[in-house]
Amino acid sequence: MHLGAKIWLEVNGKSVMGAGRLGLLKAIASEGSIAGAAKKLGISFRRAWGAVGSAEDNLGMKLLDRRKGGAGGGKTTLTLQARELVARFETLNRETSDFAARRFDVLFGGGGAASAPRTDRTGRKRGS
To answer: Please, which contacts does 104-108 make with residues 24 or more away whose CB atoms are closer than 8 Å?
Structure first.
């Protein structure tokens, strides 16, 4: 048996940050454009643009600074608030995963299914 858990942030019941948006923002930061990030992640430009736009709308803040192209081309960077959001979310995700793994080891013995406590359908331990 293995632990699986996902963390995401919501505002008014709408997701604003999770693994997908985190990956997208990090790809935008490294590629310097939404189009480059979308290509890197194998998603459409429209999907990437929509994910950023809905997060910005629901958070009430800009996540990207966009500079139009010209002779040197355009560039998209993360705003200070977006960089802070990414850093804090990564910390929260890491710390939550570490805590959950420790609790899993305590509650389930950290091994396979054989380590899980055997219970009957009422939840009482069997064989004790």
So the answer is: 104/3, 108/1
Is residue 76 within 8 A of residue 33, CB to CB? The reply is yes
Tell me which architecture the domain covering 9-106 has in CATH. Answer: Orthogonal Bundle (1.10)
pLDDT in tens, 96-118: 999 999 999 999 986 554 444 55
Q: Assign residue 116 a region (left: φ > 0; alpha: ψ between -120 and 50; beta: otherwise).
A: beta
* Structure-token pair, residue 93: 């995700």
CA nearest 126: which of 116, 110, 3, 109? 116
pTM exceeding the 0.85 threshold for the entire prediction: no
Per-residue tokens: 36: 């480059």
User: The tokens 């355009």 sit on which residue?
Assistant: 74
